[in-house]
Structures are given as structure tokens and as C-alpha cells.
Amino acid sequence: MKNFYRMSTKILTVCLFLKFSFTEAQLTVIGLGNYNVGAVSDNGVVSMHTSAGGVYKWNAAGGLVQIGSISNGYPAAGRTVVSNDGTKISSSVTNAATGFNEISTYDVAASTWVNRGGLVPTGWDGSVSSTWGMSPNGNTIVGLGFLTAANAHAVKWDEVNGMVDLGSIVPGRSSRANAINASGTVIVGWQDEPTGTRSGAKWQDGVESFITDNNGNNVGEAGGISADGNTIIGSATPNPYVWNATSGLTYITHPNASFNFKGGATGISADGTKVIGYYRAFGAPPMSGEGFIWTASGGRINLNDYAVSLGIATNGVTMGLPLAISQDGKKIAGSGTNASGQIVAFYLDTSEFLSVSDTVKENNSVGIYPNPVTDVLNFKGTGKIEKAEIYNMVGQKVKSFGVVDGQIDVSSLSKGDYILQYSVKGEKQAYKFIKK
User: Fold this and answer.
1) Can you spell out the DSSP letters for 175-243?
2) Carries keyword Oxidoreductase (predicted)?
3) Given this model, what pLDDT does residue 430 score?
């Protein structure tokens, strides 16, 4: 028992060194019910709405506050999005003068809404236009604007140019803009093909084209974009995709993926390195699925497992539908279910919890890779390692090595989370890793 206590104390010390915590929960239930989360800012402001028409913002200091509504009796359309500094929000709100819902902007400091119109004065299904995305600085809104009852185009709005029709490269077919990069030069969304199939599209400096895979085939709807415009995320059948201007298209795969178990990518960090999304059974409720976070080095990781690997208590919440990730990649918000099966909106803040990849990023001369790992764990820039030990998350030593030259074999470990501690010239280093 004494040995076990000493090991547990040692692991706790390591975890504190790495800014991991086993007691301070960083997953917050921000609303009970079916909230459609649209975005989350770097400073922790979450924007969302309900199908009933309520428009809301949340942050830790002010809690959940209703800031607007749809009053014409039609269901809410589009997304409610927030600027990266949390000062500007956009959503679809009813214009009291016309009775139609339209792209509108909200000044958080002044608590005021301004309707921004559409492509036509009156619309259909209660809407003239709808918000779907916002530039990080909050100055440009993108979305959809009706032309007729059966036709709508992608639009963008800013103070200088007003509402601009982005058009359609297929005559008579609809398009929609879902996201815009930081400089406003690249917009992504979807375009209906002549057959009516909805495919991914991008507008580069105002010129529209389809997004294609590495074989030149059109891919599914695009939903997000990195700040520089070089990385785009979207949905295909059955796997989500990450498209990059240099490396081409990569699918985010799942072992159970099929026609009856599909996924989608819903958010991307500003630098394009972190992507969130979901997988769920066809026809199942949206929040009942399996949320994930993906990186090029680590692949897809179940979002709940990711949180636990950082030492974050999930408090019975299953994060089945992550819908938004902040520009810095450290805050995630979406929908899920609690331990009682109730639908909830959640907010996950990983700011104080550094994963191994974050640690290596801060000190790129030293580290371990890959993480998660299947067989061999490599050391980077450490020199001759005199001793290495691996502990499980309850403080038990499960593997020990003498002198190590560059790598260790962890293939015999069971799947799960571990802490590696090793010594170089008497100085101890510690990293957390995931064995998959």
C-alpha cells in the first residue's frame, strides 16, 4: 500500500507539472434542452439559438442570456455565430417592418440588433436571408439569400458593400455560403449540381468552383475553413473530409463507417490543425452520436476520451455533437446528453490542460511522437535516455526500460491513457500519451 501511495503521489506531481487536473472540471453544461450551437470565441463566448426562435449567448461570467428572437412563427434557420473577440454576433432575426427573418447583426456592448436584408425585399418560408458564417473579426457575414421560392444563392454582407450575391455556377440551381476565412478572400459552402446533388464549393476572390478529391471528383458540402483559407472541412459519404491546398483531400475515417453510420466535420481551428465533428447512425437523433477531435498527427479521437485523457471530468455528459471550436483550438461547444439522457448544450475548455502535442508545440526541440501511438513511441531531441517508466492513470508502474536509444515498444500495453517519465542526465521529463 505504501508503494502504491508513493507511485500515486509521483504521478499526481507529474500531472500537475503538465497542467493536468483530476479534480477541476472544465466541462460545463450551459443549457438544458435542444440548443443549436453556432460558434465559440477565444474568450469563451458561445452563440446559439433554438428551433423555437430564441437567440442566446453564454459565457462563464454572465451565464445563458437570451439576446433576440424570431417572432413570425417560423422555425429558426441558419446558425448563430460570434466574432473571435466575443463582441459581435450574427443570426437570423425577424424584421419587425416586413415580418420576414433576415441576416442580422448584434452589438454585444450596446445590446442592439440591426437587420441587414437580403437579395429581395420579401422571401419564402418566413425568410429573406439567413446567417451561416462570420469572419473572425465579425465584419463580414456569409449565408443564404432567397431569389424565388425554389432558388437561393450564397451571399455575403459587410458594412461597405452591403448584401452581395455570390451567384451560382450552375444556372437555375441554388448555392449557400457557410464559412469565410480571416481575410475574406475565400468563402466555402455548397453548390447544387445540375442533377440537384449538393456538393462542396468555394469562392476564391469571388470566383466559384467545386471542391474535388484527389481524383477530381466533387466532394460533399463544406462547412468550415482555416484562417488562411488553405484548409477546408466538410462532409462526404460516409466520412468527413479535410481538404488542403497543398496536400489535397484526407478523409477522417471510423472503423464502423458505412451508409448507415455517417460522419461530418463541424469546426476547424484557425491554424487548421484541429478539426471537430461527429459520427452517428443514419436517422438517429443528432446529439446521440459520437463526437470526435482530429489532428493530422493523432487522427480521430473520441471527444469524451480526449477530455478524459487531459484529466477533465465529463460529469456524465456524452459530447455527441460538437458543433464549434474556437480559433485558438482550445474551446469546444455543442450538444450532447447528460447521465439522465436529457439533451444539453456543453462547453469544453481545454486551456489549462496541455496535451502532448501542445507540449511539443511549445518546445519543439523535445518531445515524443506519435500520439496516440499504436506500437512504437519515438523520442525527439532527448539525447541518451538513462531510464524510462510508464504509469497508468491510477499510479501503477506498468512498464520499465533501462537505457533507451530513440524509441520504446509499447505494443503490449492495453488501450488507454498513460504517463511516460524518463531521465536524461539526471533531469526528469514527463509526457502523457494515448495507446490506441
Assistant:
1) EEEEEE-TTSSEEEEEEE-TTS-EEEEEEETTEEEE-B-TTS-B---EEEE-TTS-EEEEE-SSSEEEE
2) no
3) 77
The arrangement of secondary structure in 28-353, i.e. its CATH architecture, is: 6 Propeller (2.120)
Residues 83/134, Cβ–Cβ less than 8 Å: yes
Segment 7-31 shows an average pLDDT of: 53
> Which residue did the predictor score with more confidence, 235 or 17?
235
Residue found by looking up cell 433554438 in the block: 50
In angstroms, the CA 321 to CA 143 distance is 22
Phi and psi at 11, nearest 5°, equal -65, -40
Return the pLDDT at 353. 58
Distance CA 17, CA 421 (A): 12
Question: What kind and span of H or E run contains 133?
Answer: strand 129-134
**Which residue matches cell numbers 485523457?**
309
Under the banding of pLDDT at 50, 70 and 90, the label for residue 366 is: low
Average pLDDT, stretch 285-314?
A: 89
Domain 367-435, CATH among 2.40.10, 3.40.50, 2.60.40, 1.10.3470:
2.60.40
Compute, in degrees rounded to 10, the torsion defined by CA atoms 167, 173, 177, 181. Answer: -60
* pLDDT recorded at residue 129: 98
Question: What b-and-e string marks burial along 56-80, b requiring 16 or more CB atoms within 10 Å of the CB?
Answer: bbbbeeeeeeebbbbeeebebbbbb
Q: How far apart are CA 416 and CA 391, in angstroms?
A: 11
